[in-house]
Write a structure and sequence with these properties.
Length: 287
């Protein structure tokens, strides 16, 4: 998850009538809803993302739109606002070194446990449109083709319901241009015959993954423990206190010796730093 989408051209903050007070309200609502910090430098970005939405809901300006967001009937619109102000920048096998470490260092022990009938669970937190959990699943199946017959599953969550729908569908374009090998395309995807360039994940790949909508700063219904958690390029958009709380929550749900993979510019901070040991490039193990 990221708020780094390119801005729509031709709009400025003043064009939509936003002022500092309205922007401060909008930033506070976003932070309260999902923990993301919307800095002043993102003002034009916010305007470009939301101006069309203002027209759709009949708000004459951002002050009126904030009134709607803060109202008792504004829950659905707050979710829509969060989706519009977050962008899911992802691809298959992004930060490839993590999947190499998963394959070489982490999976051998976990798959041995799975073969013995033990429970193995992994979590892609902030999974975007699903490429990350599918990359995890392909890494698992490359190592153990019958993993789907064992008690091994991957949870994939994101705050954006539309991204969850994409993940569930397992439909992606131009896999030839992605970091998916020809062998993996043959093994795990079917290409549409209608010339659209779409590929759909096969059932045995999709069946390893459960997709669910989840706000990371809200309640977590799952109890764990998880043997592996991927949470990459998500926490960076939160303030320091929220980051520290999330690292602690991840640490609590990790199994002993469990592994946490984080984004290239993220570091575990706060109390969790005493529970999670850095063992590789942005790779932590629970002590």
């Amino acid at each position: 998850m990221s708020i780094g989408r390119h801005m729509t051209s031709g709009l400025s903050a003043m064009d939509a009538g936003i002022d500092d007070v309205a922007f401060a309200r909008l930033a506070a609502i976003l932070h309260s809803e999902c923990g993301i910090v919307l800095s002043d430098s993102k003002k034009s970005l916010a305007v470009s993302r939301l101006s069309k939405r203002l027209r759709q809901v009949g708000a004459s300006d951002f002050t009126q739109y904030c009134d709607l967001l803060e109202s008792r009937s504004g829950e659905a619109e707050r979710k829509e606002m969060v989706c519009l102000l977050t962008t899911n920048v992802t691809n298959f096998f992004r930060e490839a070194h993590h999947f190499q470490r998963l394959s070489e260092d982490v999976l051998p022990t976990l798959l041995d446990r799975a073969r013995k009938g033990e429970r193995v669970r992994m979590w892609s937190a902030g999974c975007s449109s699903g490429q990350e959990p599918y990359s995890i699943a392909m890494t698992v199946l490359d190592a153990l083709p019958d993993a789907g017959c064992l008690d091994l599953r991957i949870l994939a969550t994101d705050i954006d319901s539309r991204m969850i729908s994409t993940g569930k569908s397992g439909i992606y374009r131009d896999l030839e241009k992605a970091q998916v090998t020809e062998a993996q395309r043959r093994s795990y995807f079917n290409k549409d015959a209608d010339g659209t360039g779409n590929w759909q994940a096969r059932d045995h790949l999709r069946d390893l993954i459960t997709f669910a909508e989840l706000n990371l700063i809200g309640d977590w219904p799952m109890k764990g423990p998880f043997d592996v958690i991927f949470c990459r390029n998500v926490v960076i958009y939160f303030d320091a206190d929220t980051q520290a709380r999330l690292w602690s929550r991840f640490a609590k749900l990790l199994a002993p010796d469990g592994t946490l993979f984080v984004g290239h510019s993220e570091r575990v901070s706060g109390p969790a730093a005493s529970q999670l040991k850095l063992v590789g490039t942005t790779q932590y193990k629970k002590i």
